[in-house]
């Protein structure tokens, strides 16, 4: 079977909530303290997966990680806290975060055509900049080693050391003439010193490239613009996305846009770079609408489609730019809006919710691949077990903890994934 691009979406976990934990993520900050709707959130995510399967694409699924996380609660001495202390409550909220749903931050993936040993390499992201995300990687790597257990085709690496922050595929893009051809891997890092943290460190990106055995001639290390980070682009995938020969980017995404485009064109002469100017869509509108946090997909017809959040479709500046693009003769031929509002309110659009893996589906543990019957099964588990609503003040409630733990156990049981219990 040929190697193809697959998208592995993280199922929204039963503890999905708005605790405002992510400094520099404007959506997370602006929805802090609101009630969340885990059941509706997970159903929205499954509907997106079904939508993309309906386009004729291979879809995968990752299970939520254990929450509240007993390892973090023990390690930080949070099993009995002073409820009057907001700092302790905030730390406890970290252990409840369902942030592993954003699988674009699970790992960086280099497909087999790019690597020295001809295997697909995955390095789990350490996510050290945000405490609530730094707890993810040991459980993430466990899941990756199960899904990609075939060591003839995959190598799964532990996260790079915590001295260098790594946010995974959200700060990595791959360009190529076709998914199964050797690619140009673009690593985007930030420089510290701005109003918000720069989460991706250049040395983490360089370490990942070495671990994956990439050819230095087919890698670019690109500085993200400080302006973009300060405006709320806490990951590069908030302002740029690539697929095959196309890079779709806001003009203020990179510190040196013209130099970046020139370097890409030198290494990949077939590259088509679609730049959205700030005069058409401001950085603020791009970040609020999540236009670029889109899935740019090659459809079975060969044309490219852009799966965007409804928020982007509804924003007048973005809509008029998209209408113009569709009327032109550009490489992106379809725009496909989806509703992931519950995730969006925490800063997670369609692209955050998926990890792209280019490989032969037959080499992947089938329990992680989705079809219509499995989507229906997961929907039934969610409908039966996911809490309908969580108020951030409920975090810490033993009854809620019990129902969240039971919900995940029901899912693992339904998917026959007892190894992850
Ligand atoms: O890391 N939000 C996530 C959103 C991740 C989006 N991923 C990509 N851009 N690929 C983050 O900031 C919010 C959690 C809270 O506030 O409770 C959160 O973690």
Brief summary:
This protein has a single domain (4-420), classed as L-arginine/glycine Amidinotransferase, Chain A, CATH 3.75.10.20. Helices cover 33% and strands 18% of the residues.
Secondary-structure blueprint:
Blueprint: E1 4-10, H1 26-30, H2 38-54, E2 58-62, H3 70-75, H4 86-96, E3 107-110, E4 120-124, H5 131-134, H6 137-147, E5 154-157, E6 172-175, E7 184-189, H7 202-211, E8 219-223, H8 226-230, E9 240-243, E10 246-250, H9 257-267, E11 272-276, H10 283-289, E12 295-298, E13 304-309, H11 310-313, H12 316-327, E14 332-338, H13 341-344, E15 354-359, H14 372-385, H15 398-414
Parallel strand pairs: 1-2, 4-5, 7-8, 10-11, 13-14
Antiparallel strand pairs: 1-15, 3-4, 6-7, 9-10, 12-13
This protein binds N~2~-(3-carboxypropanoyl)-L-arginine (SUG).
